[in-house]
Design a protein that fits this description.
Number of helices: 9
Strand content: 5-15%
Order of helices and strands: HHHHHHHEHEEEH
Radius of gyration: 18 Å
Number of domains: 1
Number of strands: 4
Mean pLDDT: 87
Low-confidence stretches: 1-28
Length: 216
């Protein structure tokens, strides 16, 4: 079996076992992390930490450019203009290497474009990043309390987290303080209610620093 395909199979098995239970559900059985997957997780976590440290780029500019570029990419994909869609990512790459941007929407689009370009190995690499992203960002945290809040690189990750667990966002509010939290009141498929906490302390600082850098 191709080594990258084996990676994906292992990642899929791991993802199925690692999703934390919601509310009072019993904890799922754990599956030992294969060494190959652990190596990827370690590398991706180090990459994420460098991103959150904010060195060498303007977070606000990157966030703004993502909102501008991704709809253009989607329009080109819908027109099957895949090479042009790939080129449309250039403004993002100019701000930070694409592999160093832990944005779920960007990763998903890159998977599609790499597949369309016949770059199978790289598409598989990005698919693996997509499947492991919540493990990379959350680690063992479940977002159920402030103590186990998940630190996010982009607000979009919160919606990705909910979607993977079948949760619906009801309300959302910023809770400032020594640490800042994005607090989401949610319901699950059975109508049970709960609250999730996402740590946005560094994200808020990165955004404000970027805005200040952009001022004349």
């Amino acid at each position: 079996m191709n080594a990258w395909i084996r990676f994906l199979v292992l990642a899929l098995c791991l993802h199925g076992a690692m999703a934390p239970a919601w509310a009072q559900d019993p904890a799922p059985a754990t599956t030992p992390t294969p060494p190959e997957i652990q190596a990827v997780l370690t590398a991706e976590k180090a990459r994420l930490e460098r991103f959150l440290a904010g060195d060498g780029y303007n977070y606000f500019a990157l966030e703004t450019k993502l909102r501008e570029v991704l709809p253009k990419v989607d329009a080109l994909i819908n027109q099957r203009q895949y090479a042009a869609a790939q080129e449309a990512l250039a403004p993002l790459a100019a701000l930070r290497p694409l592999d160093d941007i832990p944005h779920i929407g960007l990763i998903m689009r890159r998977v599609r474009l790499l597949h369309e370009a016949g770059q199978t190995a790289e598409a598989t690499t990005q698919s693996l990043r997509y499947m492991l992203l919540d493990r990379v960002v959350a680690g063992e945290r479940d977002a159920l309390t402030e103590a186990t809040a998940i630190e996010v690189p982009f607000i979009e990750f919160e919606y990705f987290w909910l979607a993977r667990r079948g949760l619906k966002r009801e309300t959302q509010r910023l809770q400032p303080g020594e640490r800042s939290y994005d607090v989401l009141d949610v319901t699950d498929r059975d109508g049970r209610r709960g609250t999730l906490y996402f740590d946005v302390t560094r994200l808020v600082k990165l955004r404000l620093d970027g805005i200040n850098q952009a001022k004349p």
